[in-house]
Amino acid sequence: MAVTPASGTQHALRAGDYEAVIASVGATLRSLTYRGRDLVVPFEADEVRPAHRGATLAPWPNRVVDGKYSFAGREFQLALTEPARSHALHGLATWLDFEAIDKGSDHVTLAAVIQPQTAYPWRVIVTARFELGPDGLTQSVTARNDSAEPAPWGTGPHPYLVAGPGHVDEWTLELPATQVLAVTPDRLIPTDLVPVDADDPERFDFRTPRTIGAAEIDHAYSGLVRGSDGIATVRVTGADGTGVEMSWDASCPWVQVHTADKPDPAQSRLGLAVEPMTCAPDAFNAGSYDYDAGLIVLEPEVSATASWRIGAIV
Questions:
Q1: pTM of the model
Q2: Share of the chain residues as helix, strand and coil, in percent rounded to the nearest 5
Q3: Half-sphere exposure of residue 119, counting CA atoms within 13 Å on the CB side?
Q4: Rounded to an integer, what distance in angstroms lies between the CA atom of residue 219 and that of residue 207?
Q5: Residue 97 pLDDT > 90, yes or no?
Q6: What CA–CA distances, in Å, run from 286 to 66, 186, 283, 307?
Q7: High-pLDDT (> 90) share of the chain, %
Q8: Considering Cα of 280, then 284, then 285, then 286, what sign does the dihedral take?
């Protein structure tokens, strides 16, 4: 009897010079290469996914502070899935086993249902489509509210981008964002949305491409500068100018950037997490902040879609 790998059913995709493997647990991007070069930090098929690497985040990305929120006049308490900081982290879909409902050599569409539960009493159908093309891998996430009442919603991906050999410190980052969300140093609780050059530009301002160096970042950015096509693009390159880029449209007005600092030096700063988000951290508590957190309220039988692309810089 065949044993399913720890990360779920594997869906191998190929188109031109690109190859990707999507794992069914969490609709996870397990690997992505261009001409054999890693564009994201991969992991093994029979490995429990480390650090939400490549997962699809839903029905919220990032954190709900203390796991508490109110919606439509009701109070809710989520399980604290980030125990070190006592928050609810990255939603409810990251460990769901998504089923393939459409598949070809260069694409796969996976679906799962977030069932009504004590702290999130709405049924939301989540569909994640991955498709390889000449410009890289595009993922689209669609949520449909299959409940009788409106539901709070947010989504985003969690890839760790790889520019080339070495570590994050040696790579150049171009991040076209004018604002960064300040957070408390211990629990990363949002405080204020400030200009990237206000307090610590060496740490936060990458509007002009420069080396990341020793900067430690685990922050959400907004005020994205987009091209004439409405697309925002983050680029990470190595010393030879090659690397990886991630782009997305107006469906994601926020992006979390994390230099992946870990206590174990062997696992630290292996890739740069770039996470386009439809909403800000702690958006389920949007009313607590004086900026637009971007929370989506899905009406019954209504859908919302967000998408992003990862491609090689050659």
A1: 0.97
A2: 5, 45, 45
A3: 16
A4: 15
A5: yes
A6: 14, 21, 5, 22
A7: 97
A8: positive
Contact 137, 14 (CB under 8 A): no
Q: What are residue 140's DSSP bridge partners? A: 129, 307
Cis peptide before 185 (omega within 30 of 0): no
164-185: per-residue pLDDT in tens?
Answer: 999 999 999 999 999 999 999 9
| CA angle in degrees (0–180, nearest 5) for 109-11-8 | 100
Number of C-alpha atoms within 13 angstroms, CB side, residue 309? 17
Unique residue bearing structure tokens 């880029």: 245
pLDDT over 80 (residue 128): yes
Q: What is the mean pLDDT of the chain?
A: 97
Contact 226/232 with Cβ under 8 angstroms?
Answer: yes
Which token pair is 189? Answer: 């609780």
Task: Report residue 92 as tokens.
Answer: 């409810």
